[in-house]
Design brief:
Layout: E1 3-10, E2 13-17, E3 50-57, E4 72-73, E5 77-81, E6 86-91, E7 97-102, E8 107-113, E9 117-122, E10 126-131, E11 137-142, E12 152-154, E13 157-161, E14 166-171, E15 177-182, E16 188-190, E17 197-199, E18 202-206, E19 211-216, E20 222-227, E21 248-250, E22 253-257, E23 261-267, E24 273-279, E25 284-287, E26 291-295, E27 301-305, E28 311-315, E29 327-329, E30 332-336, E31 341-346, E32 352-357, E33 368-370, E34 373-377, E35 382-388
Parallel strand pairs: 1-16
Antiparallel strand pairs: 1-2, 3-35, 4-5, 5-6, 6-7, 8-9, 9-10, 10-11, 12-13, 13-14, 14-15, 17-18, 18-19, 19-20, 21-22, 22-23, 23-24, 25-26, 26-27, 27-28, 29-30, 30-31, 31-32, 33-34, 34-35
Length: 394
């Protein structure tokens, strides 16, 4: 039987507890190591100006669930979902609502879209598909277990990862299961799953057993399998080596990072490990032309060379502030934090460029970038759009 760890978070320090097995002992603030406290935000002179383009309410608050319901896009519309079952489509530029559908499901993974259908999964193990143009429900089915990651939707199918280690493809037209694979899972794992990514007819995903695998999109046949980190340590918690964050694909390479594990570059065609280095992250990473940006387990933002994994710079301004996975926009890399702030850093130097606040609620999900606009979903159920002001408007 697989046991999922329930966790609490103070800043970015995770305290794990197996339900009904361990008890947390109350402690005063004097017992907390200052190194574990969230970093104080310091004043600085912004070098760029950020403007809010629009805000749109999606659904109810998910502050205590940490579902990281990231928006999705087809390039024209932005799609958002909330845990109370609402899924919406809005215009990317102005935020005008196109449609809103109440599914009645506790949405916990998604949405994913190809511009024709929008697919999302629930905490109860349901999968629902809507028409991307009208929001009309096309089908809903029951899958094996809870869905905590966005489905990957492309061509005629949706690929879904469930928390029990299953990866399956479903027909976008009927919801019929086309194929599935099952990975062996550890007894304990950090709650959360990596979303599958589709590239070059491959479905690529990380798993809780520390593996990154590629499967044929057509039939689910294994193409390659890489073990990033062999679990080590005396206790089950010390042996956690989950890959909870979604891999990034750029050029001919796949980049993946695990919790208490490795950051690695893998050749997409062969699965050959190109390089790896020690790195721990449960938030995730982003890449640009030459650089990888990782939010590590301490919420430090780290930039590394794509070619070698060599560290270029590291910023500790957000240490223990539970920073989200980064997103690249223009000459900046952006992360959100547990107080609802968005922080903009210079790609080349890591210097802090700007800071804006999207309300007072946590930003768990990785920001989404479409052209020159950054979209972010706050845990209070609101979606925001931001843009860097041009120099002539400064």
């Amino acid at each position: 039987m697989r046991i999922l760890l329930k966790y609490w978070q103070y800043g970015s320090k995770i305290l794990f507890s197996v339900v009904l097995a361990l008890a947390l002992v109350a402690c005063s603030s004097a017992d907390i190591d200052p190194e574990d406290l969230p970093a104080e935000l310091v004043k600085f002179k912004p070098s760029i100006k950020i403007s809010k383009v629009w805000r749109r309410g999606v659904g109810d608050d998910t502050e205590n669930l940490r579902l990281a319901l990231r928006p999705a896009t087809d390039g024209t519309a932005i799609y958002g979902a909330s845990h109370d079952g609402k899924i919406i489509a809005v215009e990317a530029e102005k935020g005008r609502r196109i449609w809103k559908t109440k599914t009645g499901l506790p949405i916990s993974g998604g949405p994913g879209t190809d511009g024709k259908v929008v697919v999302a999964g629930s905490s109860d193990g349901d999968l629902v598909a809507l028409d991307a143009v009208t929001g009309a429900e096309l089908w809903r089915i029951s899958v094996t277990s809870e869905v905590l990651a966005a489905p990957a939707v492309v061509l005629d199918r949706a690929v879904v990862r469930t928390v029990n280690g299953k990866l399956a493809a479903f027909s976008n037209e009927t919801g019929e299961q086309l194929w599935s694979i099952q990975q062996s899972m550890p007894k304990l794992s950090v709650r959360g799953t990596a979303a599958p990514v589709i590239a070059r007819n491959n479905v690529i995903s990380g798993f809780d057993n520390g593996r990154v695998s590629a499967f044929d999109l057509n039939d689910g046949a294994l193409i390659w399998d890489v073990l990033l980190q062999l679990p080590s340590g005396r206790s089950e918690i010390e042996r956690l080596a989950d890959i909870n964050s979604t891999v990034a694909v750029a050029g001919g390479d796949v980049y993946a990072v695990g919790y208490q594990g490795q950051l690695a570059a893998i050749a997409i065609e062969s699965g050959k490990l190109l390089w790896s280095r020690d790195m721990s992250s449960y938030s995730g990473l982003a890449v640009d032309v030459s650089t990888i940006f990782v939010t590590n387990q301490f919420s430090e933002l780290v930039a590394l060379s794509r070619g070698s994994g060599r560290e270029l710079w590291r910023k500790k301004e957000l240490r223990n502030r539970d920073a989200s996975a980064p997103a690249v926009i223009g000459g900046s890399v952006v992360v959100g934090d547990y107080e609802g702030y968005l922080h903009w850093f210079d790609l080349e130097t890591g210097d802090l460029q700007a800071r804006v606040r999207a309300g007072s609620d946590r930003i768990s999900s990785q920001p989404l970038v479409v052209n020159d606009i950054l979209y972010v979903m706050s845990d209070n159920g609101s979606m925001y759009a931001y843009k860097i002001k041009s120099s002539k408007n400064r």
